[in-house]
Design brief:
There is one protein chain. The protein has 301 residues and is α/β, with parallel strands linked by helices. It has two domains: 141 residues, Periplasmic binding protein-like II (D-Maltodextrin-Binding Protein, domain 2, 3-Layer(aba) Sandwich), CATH 3.40.190.10; 139 residues, D-Maltodextrin-Binding Protein, domain 2 (3-Layer(aba) Sandwich), CATH 3.40.190.10. The strands form two sheets. Strands 1, 2, 3, 4, 6, 7, 8, 9 and 12 form a nine-stranded mixed β-sheet that branches. The protein has a three-stranded mixed β-sheet with strand order 5-10-11.
Length: 301
């Protein structure tokens, strides 16, 4: 009997050791802006090399979709291509969610054409407003310029949950969320790239980094805010001359999650590497002043 008990205790010890060795690895789930996604995925890829035991999953349901998940508590980190709206911030307060707002890069909204388009190199802000405003009467290219073709314009852009949609409508139409509805919308920017690439009379918009990744498939259009046509580039986005379509990009982190070693380690790694990696994937690094502010926010959490 004594020997049987000793065997049972030994088996129990082995089983306990096995269960401890097979404990669930730390996981980090990030969602939000499809524009911020390439930066976050690049950071996550490098982080996984240093911390292979931490599972990092990055999605892109759009800024609005990501913030909804953030407020609901299903994610601890959210990428955003615009600041939180007042209504979203209030929802966080109502549910007791405190957060860190970190500015991680700059981006320009690129307006793109099919590469065979040989009649349009730029548009004024007023032409773009007339094209994209709600109930716009513009159907064909000639409606914007009589010298342009009498062919229907096929439009592509982000869905309404996208921070890019919010930024574009506010900058061009003058009211956030105000847009014509008869366009092909997608949260996946690759769908928009393909749509414009395959239609001679198409026009679309999304983050500049996606144009940079696909510049052999698309034609970049200039925007004239009254001072002459300007195309987005690292220089024009940083100095603000690509107006009014330059914008900062954000990372929101649930403050309570900063007590988890994996979250704190990942956010620190993100801030230490975002300048280098954001540039590699086509974005503009933040200024030294913004980077210093990020460090102060992080250290105070």
């Amino acid at each position: 009997m004594k020997r049987m008990q000793q065997r049972q205790l030994a088996l129990f010890g082995l089983l306990a050791g096995f269960l401890i060795g097979c404990s669930t690895p730390e996981s980090i789930t990030i969602d939000g802006s499809s524009t911020v996604y390439p930066i976050t995925e690049a950071v996550a890829e490098e982080y996984r090399k240093e911390q292979p035991d931490v599972r990092v999953t990055v999605g892109f349901s759009g800024t609005g979709g990501g913030v909804k998940k953030f407020i609901a508590g299903s994610i601890d980190i959210c990428g955003a291509s615009r600041p939180m709206k007042e209504s979203e911030s209030k929802a966080c307060q109502d549910t007791g969610v405190e957060y860190l707002e970190l500015e991680v890069a700059f981006d320009g909204l690129a307006i793109v054409l099919n590469p065979t388009n040989d009649w349009c190199d730029s548009m004024t802000v007023e032409q773009l407003k007339e094209l994209w405003r709600p109930e716009s009467a513009v159907k064909q290219w000639k409606d914007l310029n009589p010298e342009w073709p009498a062919e229907d314009i096929t439009l592509y852009g982000p869905g309404t949950d996208s921070g890019t949609f919010d930024s574009f409508t506010k900058s061009i139409v003058g009211e956030e969320g105000a847009s014509r509805a008869d366009y092909t919308a997608s949260e996946d920017d690759n769908v928009l790239v393909t749509g414009v690439q395959e239609d001679q009379y198409a026009l679309g918009y999304f983050g500049y980094a996606y144009y940079a990744e696909n510049k052999d498939k698309l034609k970049l259009m200039g925007v004239d805010d009254g001072t002459g046509p300007v195309q987005p580039s690292e220089e024009t986005v940083r100095d603000g001359s690509y107006s009014p379509l330059s914008r900062p990009l954000f990372l929101y982190v649930r403050k309570s999650a900063m007590s988890r070693d994996a979250i704190r380690s990942f956010v620190r790694f993100y801030l230490d590497n975002t300048a280098k990696l954001s540039k590699e994937v086509g974005y503009v690094p933040v200024s030294d002043e913004a980077a210093k502010k990020n460090d102060e926010i992080f250290n105070g959490a």
